[in-house]
Automatic annotation (TrEMBL):
It comes from the Bacteria. It comes from Rhizobium calliandrae. This is UPF0391 membrane protein PY650_32240. Keywords: Cell membrane, Membrane, Transmembrane, Transmembrane helix. The chain crosses the membrane at residues 6-26, 33-51. Belongs to the UPF0391 family. The keyword Transmembrane applies. HAMAP family: UPF0391.
Length: 54
């Protein structure tokens, strides 16, 4: 999932350089959403690992 966030970020950078503002904004917002979703799932998995251990 972090890979896809980076891919959308790169697409946003390239679209921004080429002057496609709408596509750049949409790609940047998708990348931001995926990154925060990755962080939330990562924290949940860390908490679950701590809870499972005896």
């Amino acid at each position: 999932m972090l890979y896809y966030a980076v891919v959308f970020f790169v697409v946003a950078l390239i679209a921004g350089i080429l002057g496609f503002g709408g596509i750049a904004g949409a790609s940047a917002s998708i990348a931001q959403f995926l990154f925060f979703l990755f962080l939330v799932l990562f924290v949940i998995s860390l908490v679950m690992q701590v809870v499972r251990r005896p």
